[in-house]
Write a structure and sequence with these properties.
Elements (H helix, E strand, L loop, with lengths): L2 E3 L5 E3 L11 E3 L2 E2 L24 E3 L2 H14 L6 E3 L10 H4 L1 H12 L3 E5 L8 H10 L14 E6 L5 H7 L6 H13 L3 E6 L10 H13 L5 E3 L12 H12 L4 H7 L8 H18 L7
Parallel strand pairs: 1-5, 3-6, 6-7, 7-8, 8-9, 9-10
Antiparallel strand pairs: 2-3, 4-5
Helix pairs in contact: 1-3, 3-4
């Protein structure tokens, strides 16, 4: 069972809008995450090896958010709110607490635009609110012409293989169900694409799997893909580097020495890999005519 906690603030203003995710603000209605992705960047933090054990619901978040959005709207400080930056907005406990839905009700009330980033298929429950936000949100002035709508929905994928996903993101909705959900979302008319990150070296970044990813998302008419390499943070028994290497040793032992070499001295892939990766992503984006940006 999740803990119930109270917070003093819920709406976070970013220092600078990210060019990929277009985040002027971020909201996390929950703390920690039950999806337990081994590669998660917050694993180097206090949450530990099993993120689910530190899962918390911010039970006073709606009251706080109402006040914060009111104050921002009164000053006409409109901007895109990203749900979520540190945990998925559609965890299983959302069925009980409905904090994400209540947050969307307030976002619609105060006419802020929103960007949902999720690995879940639960989002269809909130199509009604997301349609309302899409048509009534007040966009920042510099995005009124280039974006022109209030709702963005990104589905996160590191692989399309359910068995591989079960190893590296054991608590998340299987990719096969996510595919059905993104197809439904696009048919609903939303601006929707894929956060294709992190791709797993020699597992989901192979030529065959990349072709499958791009061809699948092209067929669904995804509006964009946002591809990225893997970064593994931390230096303890519960960090992402340790957990990924343990999973590789158990399930892909033939790849262990490569992973150990890549992450021997740091958290990022080598520069030559990232250069080749960027080149390949550009080639595939051109081949399949899918943008590598939301705008």
């Amino acid at each position: 069972m999740p803990r119930e906690i109270e917070v003093k603030s819920i709406l976070n203003k970013t220092k600078k809008r990210d060019s990929w995710f277009l985040d002027d603000y971020t909201i996390n209605m929950y703390s920690s995450c039950s999806f337990n992705c081994l590669y998660c960047y917050i694993r180097g933090s206090k949450y530990g090896e099993n993120l689910e054990t530190s899962l918390s619901a911010k039970i006073n978040a709606i009251e706080i958010l109402d006040r914060q959005l009111y104050n921002r709207a009164k000053k006409e400080q409109y901007g895109i709110i990203v749900l979520s930056s540190a945990t998925d907005p559609y965890l299983q406990i959302e069925k009980k607490y409905e904090l994400t839905r209540q947050a969307l009700e307030l976002i619609a009330k105060y006419r802020f635009p929103v960007h949902i980033i999720t690995k879940s298929d639960m989002i269809s429950r909130d199509y009604d609110l997301l349609h309302q936000i899409d048509t009534t949100a007040i966009l920042p002035y510099d995005l009124q012409q280039s974006l022109g709508r209030g709702t963005i929905i990104s589905y996160s994928f590191s692989t399309l293989d359910d068995q591989v996903a079960r190893i590296f993101e054991p608590g998340a909705t299987p990719p096969s169900l996510r595919l059905q959900s993104i197809e439904s979302t696009i048919k609903e008319g939303f601006l929707s694409g894929v956060s294709m990150m992190p791709l797993l070296p020699f597992i989901s970044d192979t030529t065959a799997h990349l072709e499958l990813l791009f061809s699948t998302f092209k067929k669904m008419q995804a509006h964009y893909v946002l591809p990225a390499t893997i970064t593994l943070f931390g230096s303890g028994k519960a960090d992402s580097k340790t957990l990924i290497l343990q999973a590789i040793e158990k399930h892909f032992p033939e790849l262990l020495s490569r992973y150990q070499t890549y992450f021997q001295y740091g958290s990022e892939m080598p520069a030559y890999y990232k250069t080749a990766f960027a080149k390949k992503m550009k080639e595939l984006s051109l081949e399949y005519a899918i943008k590598q940006s939301i705008l």
